[in-house]
Amino acid sequence: MSSFGIPEPPPAPPSWNVESEAASDHEGHSRVFRAVAGSAIAILVAGGVAAAVLAFGFIRGSADSMVTFAPSDTAVYVNLDLQPSAGQQLALSDILGKFPGLSGSSRDATINHWLDSGLQSSGLSHADVRTWIGSQVSLIVLKSSDGAIPAEVSLLASTNDAAAQAMFVKYKSGPTGQPLRWTVATYDGVTVNVGQDSSGGTQAWAITGHTVIAATSETAVDEVIDTSQGKHASLTAQADYTAIQGQVPSDRVAFLYVDIPQVSALIPSTAVAGAAASLRGYEGVGEAVVASSSGITVSGTIDFDSSKLTAAARASLGVAPHSNGALAFVPSSAFGFLTLVGLPQMLKSLVSLAIPGLGTSESQALDELGITGPSGVISHLTGDAGIEVEQLPGAQVPSGALLIATDSSGAVQSFLDQLAARLCSPGQGCGSTTPTQQSYQGVTISSITINGADSSQLSPSWAVDNGWVIVASTPAEVRAVVDARRGSNIARSSQFRAVAGEVGTSNDGMFYLNVQAVVTAVRAVLPADARATFDQQIAPYLTPIQAVGTSVRSFGDHIATSEFVLIR
């Protein structure tokens, strides 16, 4: 909810709040970009998007009318269509009907309750908003005129300007608006109301072209007014914005656009060197939220100019998408996994970045460990890798395994044995300097114990199965991974198959989470009283959400992303 007490687009994760992040350090700004570009973020918004759309009960499709108000130098643009196509509306209705309080006639009352709860502190209610709000809601982020904290602007389509004006009058006299010092100005024939608090914070709003403009800066309101009157180029004049529109679905309920050069410009000059440089070459990010009968899909793209990227980045992005061999080793009961391709390129890039800051002795140590050098283990990695996590039957804690494809079983087996010997040299905390070994399905499993640790929960183990390195938390987990490759892998999971059918398994990176498996594991360890509360207040909202999956595919000038939330 904005500082005006009126609803903005569905609440985004904290890292979308560019205004607050701009006041933090370089690490915070880096998280802003990664979070916005990262696909997982859009998934978190999908549920809020769906609820907001259905709050208004429209069934016709409409184009984005708000973008013509967004200036060409907009850093972040988010649009929520409250009047999507009939197909999107019906799909959302089916999805939300699976959640408590959002089916049938109870849906409208639930939405009103949510709005009343959110608006209560401002002295407003759902009736003050729903009497005038139209089919489009957008949020834009602009660089401030003084180069300080960026300005946030909410754009809300109005079907009744008088009712919208009445809401703001009520807000000004309410508990949030009354303490502010309000002034009225006219800009290009439009009345602009400006409120300031004792600390210098600003709230500004205006109504023009049947659109409510509410912002954290009077200058930002003026710029939006200029854009709406054609005196300032709009976002539609940006070539990358237009290109991204052609790469994501047009039949959608929500859209996100991030102008990466503009986001880079928001990073203060006092930030750690290299923050803006790390974004060089990347142009824009686009994400579209689409509803279907089985869940919510977020399709996106990240555009880049390969000529401006570093050689390491080009090498990583140049790996062709394919089905990752690590999937064959993921047990069907796994909580989830993460896979990637191009591991050698990634590791070589990391090593090349680290070595300049190391002395000669440290560089030689990497060679002696068998990591780098002519015969180092990096040279034997073929590219595919993954991490899986599960909880074995009877186990008290989860276990997991790292999976890496190689071209030489002997070389990597030798490397692992030598590394274990170094780590478990006398005085290093291992229960023994010599690993124990067992044979399982023709695979030799080596294990070490850690002093003070329960070996049933933590006993680092490793094996090499048909060229694949398996490094796991326990020997039991190695056995589970070996079994998976021989038939009981993730492909047997109906949830995974449904997710994979939406995001695809031919990619450069993939993430999967079996939500219900995690929920079951968490519930099992809760005390009886907490479990009862969980069952009554939390479980009903989690039950429809079966699994979440994402995939990434790299091409010559963009990265395609796909996320899917399976809802049944």
Write up what this structure looks like.
The longest helix is centred in the N-terminal third of the chain and has 16 residues, at 39-54. 33% of the residues lie in helices and 26% in strands. Mean pLDDT is 85; it is low at 1-50, 57-61 and 355-359. The protein is built from 18 helices and 22 strands. It has a 20-stranded antiparallel beta sheet, sandwiched between helices. The protein is of the alpha+beta class and 568 residues long.
Name a few traits of the molecule.
18 helices, single chain, 33% helix, alpha+beta, elongated, 20-stranded antiparallel beta sheet, 568 residues
The number of distinct helices, counting runs of at least 4 residues, comes to 18
CA-based shape: elongated
Terminal Cα span: 30 Å
Helix content: 25-40%
Look at the structure and give the mean pLDDT.
Answer: 85
Quaternary structure state of the chains depicted: single chain
Biggest β-sheet strands, sense, barrel: 20 strands, antiparallel
Helices and strands: which structural class? alpha+beta
In terms of DSSP E residues, the strand content is 25-35%
C-alpha Rg (nearest Å): 27 Å
Number of strands: 22
The residue ranges in which pLDDT falls below 50 over 5 or more consecutive positions are 1-50, 57-61, 355-359
